[in-house]
């Protein structure tokens, strides 16, 4: 029965004609615009060289580098390593980072974040957490989630609180989660009381939801919103193939936020790590301009050069990543117009590679059948970026296919490989990028057959 199911999936994919998407690389886009100049107002610190942005509503001085607490270091048993988390938090605070972002759905993160930060003076940092998808959608459930967040973070107020991942399911889902049950009105009351200092939302998906929230901002008074933004998604997000995040390019989200007077918190500045390790020919282009700069530093500099960006989140689970990012923002050296043009050309070139737009958030996990979904996608994307993907039209197809299969088997354990997928589709509603996960896994499996 399972073999028949896999066979029908193969036939279905071939019927749709899901082959190369490299033709997207031929599409033309306008140059990057709306960037900050070197004259963009920043503030400094006597203790460090971190670049800060001023929250125009509360006057908070927020570090342009924010600490995303979703991917914290793990111990041998798979839990969060509290000692290593403490060390990272201590170092970040000592070097000017003061914005820390967590959420109830980041398993163990709120507890670990609270444990680490409560060892420091409360006024030395800003806490961000979220009203995540609670499924029941009742006012009481929302209140309980907020209460639990306060307890886990050892605090009696939240500096930045977000409606989490709005957009999926459209306006009907937004109204079910936050409007019809009175939860958003209650959160506004907590904001007015000072229990929440800034109210905002994080967006993935249907752009009508994004538009609706900003169009009603006279009522709700959001001071910030969190969007996915990087030099690929700036002009290319809506061209990377359907799904929640592809309804609007980042340039639209950014410029509408700016016009509404709502500052941006940026997630995925490295596009799930893809911009931290570019294909060799693109990385070489950047090295010719700045030999000492890493690919990741270019991506972070590009994001930070936008004046409406309040902070840029990075999930830093290694000290070397933290130090590298601190060097980028301490202080920020804004991109020049010539550098923006270069990154724009690289973005256009990157569109020619049929990568899976997975950000390794792991919301899709665990798979009921044991598939390591992000692991399979990461291996495939690495092969694409290294130009090692087998092409049946090329004479080296057999050689490249053998190398692909060997590397896949060495990288992914047998019980975690793509061929374990049973098309149950349990992963589909969980993916914030709305990737057609079974189809993409089937594409990988086709290469190995």
Structure description:
- The chain is α/β, with parallel strands linked by helices.
- 41% of the residues lie in helices and 12% in strands.
- It contains 17 helices and ten strands.
- It has helices spanning 2-16, 82-94, 109-117, 139-152, 170-179, 183-193, 207-215, 217-220, 233-236, 250-260, 280-289, 295-304, 319-329, 337-350, 373-385, 397-411, 437-448; strands at residues 52-54, 61-63, 65-68, 99-101, 126-131, 158-166, 196-203, 224-228, 263-267, 309-314.
- Strands 3-4-5-6-7-8-9-10 form an eight-stranded parallel beta barrel, surrounded by six helices. A two-stranded antiparallel ribbon has the order 1-2.
- α12 (295-304) crosses α13 and α15 packs antiparallel against α16.
- 42% of the residues are buried.
- Mean pLDDT is 87; it is low at 1-41 and 241-245.
Describe what is shown at a glance.
The chain has helices spanning 2-16, 82-94, 109-117, 139-152, 170-179, 183-193, 207-215, 217-220, 233-236, 250-260, 280-289, 295-304, 319-329, 337-350, 373-385, 397-411, 437-448, and strands at 52-54, 61-63, 65-68, 99-101, 126-131, 158-166, 196-203, 224-228, 263-267, 309-314. It has 449 residues and is an alpha/beta fold. A hairpin with a 6-residue loop joins strand 1 and strand 2.
Blueprint (SSEs and pairs):
Blueprint: H1 2-16, E1 52-54, E2 61-63, E3 65-68, H2 82-94, E4 99-101, H3 109-117, E5 126-131, H4 139-152, E6 158-166, H5 170-179, H6 183-193, E7 196-203, H7 207-215, H8 217-220, E8 224-228, H9 233-236, H10 250-260, E9 263-267, H11 280-289, H12 295-304, E10 309-314, H13 319-329, H14 337-350, H15 373-385, H16 397-411, H17 437-448
Parallel strand pairs: 3-4, 3-10, 4-5, 5-6, 6-7, 7-8, 8-9, 9-10
Antiparallel strand pairs: 1-2
Helix pairs in contact: 1-17, 2-3, 7-10, 11-14, 12-13, 15-16, 15-17
